[in-house]
Fold this sequence. Notes:
Layout: E1 5-8, E2 10-18, H1 20-23, E3 34-41, E4 49-50, H2 60-66, E5 82-89, E6 95-97, H3 101-108, E7 115-122, E8 127-132, H4 137-146, H5 149-152, E9 153-157, E10 163-166, E11 172-174, E12 178-185, E13 191-194, H6 211-217, E14 230-234, E15 237-244, E16 248-262, E17 268-281, E18 284-288, E19 293-296, E20 302-316
Antiparallel strand pairs: 1-4, 1-19, 2-3, 3-5, 5-12, 6-13, 7-10, 7-12, 8-9, 8-11, 14-15, 15-16, 16-20, 17-18, 17-19, 17-20
Organism: Weissella bombi
Catalytic activity: D-mannose 6-phosphate = D-fructose 6-phosphate
Keywords: Isomerase, Metal-binding, Zinc
Amino acid sequence: MTEPLILKPTLHEKIWGGTALRDVYGLDIPSETTGEAWVISGHPNGVVSVINGKYAGKSVAQLWHDEPQLFANKDVERPFPLLVKILDAHQDLSVQVHPDDQYAKAHAGELGKTESWYILAAKPGATIYYGHTATDKAAFDQAVDEGDWDHLLQKVPVKAGDFFYVPSGTLHALGEGVLTLETQQSSDVTYRVYDFDRVDAKTGQKRDLHLADAKNVTSVPFVPEKPVQIVSNVGDLTMTNLVSAPYFNVVKWEIAGNATLEAVAPYTLATVVDGELDLIVDGVTYHLNKAASFILPNDVQTWQLDGEATLLTTTPGPQSL
């Protein structure tokens, strides 16, 4: 019998975190400063395991290596390539940048980190930091050295439903009051550029900055990528293709009724971000509430959806296969 892999998230406390992951998504947060739920992950810093069926108790990383047929994985030595998180920016995150694969491998032994943000909710007036104003590297380095953040950083207003593609090399940060689903390469390499001079309540110290690495990897000038969104329908399902990129493809599913779908990739990752629905695979019904995340592995070639819900789904791009 084929079946989906329904997952249990791991929760991470952050200096900038809050309680929205509990208040909005019903997750069992460890403290009042919980910033991240890693809902689909094979990364060792956030082990996510299956809670149903024959693979119950197995982590995504274990299955990637031990059951490669589930992902049509032809190289068990490489890590599971994708990671999906829900982030609660109760305060501004640090302004940061991530390296590409080549730099990350040489300096951190990891994948690089290209990511994307789907804004789930945003308080009135909320913003993100997205890119910078420097026209050449000398100007960028000078602004960083002088701490001229007001002139260097670009702020963009955001609302629920907005989508941003954030390739490696992009200077960025979520702003206070933003709840986001992040799809990314499976990497935990971050170079912190500016942290608003705040002090960690637990350590009494400011957090480390990584200015040399940040200068090395930040793209100058900043040229935002704005993917064209394509909408299609299957039954009572509306699918909005948010981005088709080298490492991942992100598609929003909005179901209001029922639909039957067929696989278009070796595997599909999905998170219910609103509402609830039934997922029917091989004649078995799985009821999924908000925040539920699952993987449709390679042996699931067709499935049905029934309910009223919004899901964010991810399939691997060509550089992740």
